[in-house]
Structures are given as C-alpha cells and as structure tokens.
Amino acid sequence: MKQLLFTVFLLAVVAMCSSLALAQSSAVSTITVNAGATPLAATNIDGGVDDVLRGVTYTVVYDAYAGASTVAPNSNGEAINGDVGVDITGDPEANVVVEMALPSSIEGISGVSMALDFPSSGPGSGVRGETGGFFNPNVSNTFNFGAGGIVTLRLGYVFTVPADIVIAGEIFTTQILTNAYYTGL
Prior knowledge:
Elements: H1 2-22, E1 41-45, E2 48-50, E3 57-63, E4 68-72, E5 79-82, E6 85-89, E7 95-101, E8 105-108, E9 113-117, E10 126-128, E11 134-135, E12 141-144, E13 150-154, E14 157-160, E15 172-173, E16 177-183
Antiparallel strand pairs: 1-6, 2-5, 3-4, 3-14, 6-13, 7-12, 7-16, 8-9, 8-15, 9-14, 10-11, 10-13
C-alpha cells in the first residue's frame, strides 16, 4: 500500500510539473538600432572679380596652398572679391556625390551677357581644398569626407568681358546650384 501511495504521489507530482511546463512560453525580443547619417550641410561661397576691363579674357584659378583665388591678367588693378565654391559637411570618412549645375554665361544688369567656362582639368578647374587635388566640376564627383567630415570645393573659371558694354560699372551675376548626397552608406 505504501508503494501504491508513493506511486500515486509520484504520478501527481509529475502531472503537476508537466502542467506547469505546459503553462510556460518562450519569446525572443529583437533590438534594432538604425544609425542615421549626419545631415549634409552645404554652404555656398560667393566671389568674383572686380575692376575688369572691356574686351579682356580673364582666368580665375584657386590656389589650395595659398588658400585663395588669383586672376590673370591683373595688370590694370583687377582683383578677386572672393573665392567661388561650396563647403559640405557630413559624416567623417563617408562618401558624398557632388553635382554642380554650372552656367555658361553671366548676365549683366543691362541685358548684355558674357561667356563663362569652367575648365575640366588642370589649375583652372575645380580644386579640393583639403588635398589640393583637381576635379572636373562639369561632371558628378565622389569625395570622401575624411576624418574632419568636410569637403571644401573651390572653382576656377574663364570669362571674357564684352567689348561693347555701354554702361559704366556694369554688374554681371550668375548662380551655381550644387547638389550633394551620400553614397555607399
């Protein structure tokens, strides 16, 4: 009888444990972290040339080592009034694609326009400030932000002042649209 009671007790304990086991459930939780890119910020850099003469072709070159643009010829007091380009900040070591919509002319306030050209290579082309390397501003370019998280781009350009300007102090202006977006993230 003791053995029977012990067997019944064991069966009751096993039944209780198995019903407890049936009341259990498992779940897996997932933690997801989405690393967002630092927003890109582009700052335009306005500039140009002052005191140009009619009928003269000028070449503006950015010198990365001097950190400034020069104009040639400059024998009559012509002077740079600022470098032209863009500074882009973003994630350090990330890649950024830069596209520039470059104008082919500069419009004067009297309606006269002058041809404008952005050389595709060499000293008169685009210059990356951090490296001093040239780039072709007429096509899409991919740059690495480097450890500093900045891409400094300056442009060289060539223009000819029309000989037939009739308004003294004619002012010519144009704009460059720059688009930048991450690639390879």
